[in-house]
Amino acid sequence: MxxxxxxxxxxxNATGIxxxxxxxxxxxxxxxxxxxxxxxxxxxxxxLLAVTLDSxxxxxxxxxxxGDYNGDGIIDSTWGYDMELSMAEGYFSEYEYCELNxxxxxxxxxxxxxxxxxLAYQRSYYFxxxxxxxxxxxxxxxxxxxxxxxxxxxxxxxTHLIDQDIL
Length: 167
Fold this sequence. Notes:
The protein is an alpha+beta fold. 25% of the residues lie in helices and 35% in strands. It has helices at 2-9, 30-42, 46-52, 81-94; strands spanning 53-60, 78-80, 97-103, 107-109, 119-131, 136-150, 156-164. Strands 1, 2, 3, 4, 5, 6 and 7 form a seven-stranded mixed β-sheet that branches. A hairpin with a 4-residue loop joins β5 and β6. α2 runs antiparallel to α3 (46-52).
């Protein structure tokens, strides 16, 4: 009995494997940036999201979602770092609960980066934000590609999120 309590107290499970502590720091691999992105939404941590995204981050929208997001009269097919943070902060402040679940483990060198440093992570997602009383919120599910690249310090950041049609 005491062995089980000691094992639980040390943070290991029955397999003896210690689960990773989130958020990852340092973020010295692309998959760690992907997991930090998910963790930032699940903990409603705007500061973590801000450091996980590259300052030149672009969210590529499906054509059905194009709109004038910045109010300049031009239809946008993408939005950048500031809009991504603003939308996330809106979810974090408006809703009690924010759940993002990413599934998948495929990744490959992103062909649109001539340096060959960027990795693309294909993920299915389930995103739910809600308040319990009274119940209000929404659910989204789909697929996107998260593209990560190391910056000049070797820290991996998300440079692109590309929404994808589910066939």
